[in-house]
Amino acid sequence: MTARNQFIRSFETKIKNTIKKYSLINKKDKILVACSGGKDSTTALYLLNKFGYKVEAIAIDMLIGNYSKENMKNIERFCGDNKIKLHKISFRDEFGHSLCYLTSVLKSKGSRLESCTVCGILRRHLLNRKVRELKAAKVATGHNLDDEAQTILMNILKGNPGLNAKLGPETGVVKDKKFVPRIKPLFFCLEKDVEKYSRLMKFPVKYGRCPCSVGVFRASVREELRKLRNTDKIKLNIVNDFLKQLPKLRAKYKTNEKISYCTECGEPSKGKVCSACRILQLLNSN
Asked: What distance in Å separates the CA atoms of residue 99 and residue 92, rounded to the nearest whole number?
């Protein structure tokens, strides 16, 4: 067996084992894969489809200039080539504007939210609602081991360890009819291995990071991890130790409070108004 084929088989087996060990997917489940057009989500979509699961793709266009145009074109091409149904959602159709415009207006009104934070809140809001409307059992994302190690450290460094209770191969601590479970098939895959697989398979993807992510806290954590010796082993150690602590974390931060629903949009919310609607209220304020 060639080194190429050995790597591909090992990589695919790791993902199969993750799905099996954590019971991420049932063969009867309809899975929506959240696709950005990048290497991670494209790899997740390709493999879940290859493994015989009932998958469809959902892509949210944030309208970030040529970056978004190229990614959407790649998603359409990939889904067309692999005969996968694609659902497209546009920030402009949903919110009236592109992400860049939304962020600039929010800043002019005194908001300190980073572009990535605004994007994350609004994308999660859209994704949960649209996937539920499409009657999917679960939504799969392309988060890899590097992403998870970074998020774990970010929550600790920001003094929010309780947020880590929501992480894992299947996320969340609260179950609700309006929450669609999220799974991460690439949870134990290093980012560099995902990229290697993607390039070997010649996926039509745009490599590189979102142009709006420059200067954000995640980028700083990523860079500090990169500087460490044996960085791959350290990332794996962070994630494995986290998984050992996860049951205790979830027990500690478990809440018996009933889920409330946003008075504006009806989506699950911690308060009367959800984060997405608070952003939109500020955006539309005089």
From this structure: 9
